[in-house]
TrEMBL record:
Lineage start: Bacteria, Bacillati, Bacillota, Bacilli, Bacillales
Positions bearing 4-aspartylphosphate: 55
The Response regulatory domain, residue ranges: 4-120
Native source species: Bacillus spongiae
Compartment list: Cytoplasm
Main location: cytoplasm
InterPro entries in the record: CheY-like_superfamily, NreC/VraR/RcsB-like_REC, Sig_transdc_resp-reg_C-effctor, Sig_transdc_resp-reg_receiver, Tscrpt_reg_LuxR_C, WalR-like
Keywords, in A-Z order: Cytoplasm, DNA-binding, Phosphoprotein, Transcription, Transcription regulation
SUPFAM superfamilies in the cross-refs: C-terminal effector domain of the bipartite response regulators (SSF46894), CheY-like (SSF52172)
Name used for this protein in its record: Response regulator transcription factor
Entry keyword annotation includes Cytoplasm: yes
Annotated HTH luxR-type domain residues: 143-208
C-alpha cells in the first residue's frame, strides 16, 4: 500500500526537508504541498490524501481550522499536526479539531515515518511532550485504580501500547497474534472506561505503570 501524503506548511525550507526525506520511503508518496490552511483544504478535496502533515500557525487559515474543515468534509483523511508548540493551548484544540497525531518539528525522521504509518492504521500518534500536556485534561481523577481489573496479559499489552507500539509490534513482542492483541485492547478500553489508545496510554502513565 502506498501512503499518499500532503504537506501543509508556510515555510518552504520545512516543506523541502520533509519532501527530501519522505521521498526515500518506498511506501510514501508526496502528492502535494500547501503554503497555508486554505490551500490545504482545497488540495485535500482535490487530491484526497491518506495523511496530511499540517503546520499549526500559517497565514490565511491556521492548521486547526483547516483540520476541522477537512475532517468534516473527508473524515477518512488522517492529519498529523507538525509544529513547534507542545502546550495545552495548542495540543488540545488540534486534537479536538480531529487531528490523529501531534508531533513536534524536532522529531527524528524515522519517528515521523512511524507516526505516519500509525495514523493510517487508525491509531493515535502523540509526541511525549504533547502526551504530558494532556494528562490533566483528558483523564478525570477517580478513587479506584482500574488497572487492578486488568489481567497480567492485558497489563503487558497496555505497557506496550503506552510505548506507542502498533498492534503488529505488540503481537511480535509478546508472541501472540494481532487478533489476540485487538481482543486484549478492547478489554482494556472497557475496563479502564476509555475511548481510544491515547486515553488508555494517558491513564497508564498517570498511574505510574510506565
Amino acid at each position: 500500500m502506498t501512503i499518499k501524503v500532503l504537506i501543509a506548511d508556510d515555510h518552504h525550507v520545512v516543506r523541502r526537508g520533509l519532501v527530501f526525506f519522505l521521498k526515500t520511503q518506498k511506501d510514501i508518496e508526496i502528492i502535494g504541498e500547501a503554503q497555508n490552511g486554505k490551500e490545504a483544504v482545497s488540495l485535500a478535496n482535490e487530491l484526497n490524501p491518506d495523511v496530511i502533515l499540517m503546520d499549526f500557525i500559517m497565514p490565511v487559515m491556521d492548521g486547526v481550522e483547516a483540520t476541522r474543515i477537512i475532517k468534516q468534509n473527508e473524515p477518512k483523511i488522517s492529519i498529523i499536526m507538525l509544529t513547534s508548540f507542545a502546550d495545552q493551548e495548542h495540543v488540545i484544540p488540534a486534537l479536538e479539531a480531529g487531528a490523529s497525531g501531534y508531533q513536534l518539528k524536532d522529531i527524528e525522521p524515522d519517528e515521523l515515518v512511524k507516526s505516519i504509518r500509525q495514523v493510517v492504521e487508525g491509531e493515535k500518534s502523540l509526541h511525549p511532550k504533547a502526551t504530558s500536556q494532556l494528562l490533566t485534561k483528558m483523564i478525570k481523577p477517580d478513587q479506584k485504580n482500574r488497572l487492578d481489573d486488568l489481567t497480567k496479559r492485558e497489563m503487558e499489552v497496555l505497557q506496550q501500547l503506552t510505548k506507542g507500539k502498533s498492534n503488529k509490534e505488540i503481537a511480535a513482542s509478546l508472541f501472540i497474534t494481532e487478533k489476540t492483541v485487538k481482543s486484549h485492547i478492547s478489554n482494556i478500553f472497557s475496563k479502564l472506561d476509555v475511548a481510544d489508545r491515547t486515553q488508555a496510554a494517558l491513564y497508564a502513565v498517570k498511574h505510574g505503570i510506565v
